[in-house]
Amino acid sequence: MKNDHENEKKQNLLRLLIYLILSFLPDIISVLVIWLIFKEPLFASKNYRVTQLAYVFGILGMMAPSTACLLTRLLTKEGFGNNYLDIRIKGNAGYWIIPILVKFLEGWVYLPVLWFLFMRHTSLSADYPNFNAVSIASYLHQICVVFLCFFSPFGEEWGWRGYMMPKLLKLMPKPAAVILGGIIWGLWHAPFTITGHNFGINYPGFPYLGILLMCLVCVVNNAFLTLVTEKTGSIFPATFIHGINNSLSVSILLTLFASSSLRYKVESAGTIKMTLIITIIPAITGIVSLILFMKKRVKCVNGDGSV
Length: 307
What we know:
It is built from 15 helices and no strands. The radius of gyration is 20 Å and the shape is globular. Helix content is 74%, strand content 0%. The protein has helices at 2-38, 48-61, 64-75, 93-119, 124-127, 133-148, 151-171, 174-188, 190-194, 208-232, 236-247, 250-257, 260-268, 271-278, 280-294. The two termini are 23 Å apart. By secondary structure, it is mainly alpha-helical. The longest helix is centred in the first third of the chain and has 37 residues, at 2-38. It has one domain.
């Protein structure tokens, strides 16, 4: 029995390493090649052709983890059991619906918080004057984007939460797996961060501070997304949450509803400071998620739908 356990552990570790190599290499190579061709960082360029390429590359890059998941399963003959593609809502509706609502609310909570931090000498209504038919229609359009264009966040979720995290959870205790998984996810963003994604390139400590901050953001989000995935046995709730995070973030809400004065104050604070501020509430969500995840009395659903 001990030998079987050791063999299984080695097999999981080998598959995880293959998966990580296949996840990291395409984006690293692509970023380097594009940088050599255009002689400038991809996501910080002012060249229209490069910015268009960056947009396409960003979407395609998000598919690397799921592609790696598919290839690893095929190359190692692991098959597609425990694939986390199950859609089983009965008995798990709370873990499907509540986390999605929580992610929606996170962005809205920051609207009064940012007003208080930057513009509390004026009235709240003056700094959010754009609650009109056009802005609300734009917001509803963004919601449709989340639920209709879910292939890019799916590209990450089937890889990170549907493959990497189950492997890490078999190899180490839950807290260590969540933290290490978040760090790996953050480091996977490093080629993007180095070329200006998320934070730009004009900040103190570039690019190391950006990479470190991305790891922090990914750790707190990984706790939340791993909880949801393991409790539902499906990557689809996490996919929608990831899509909400990308398409309905507080920065998008500010663009839709805030005054130009408030947006200017927020932009003047800098991306690093703002990222730290808007990570506070997700960090609280992540801590609560980790606590819930560690409770033994709450059953997890396996990726094949069994309990």
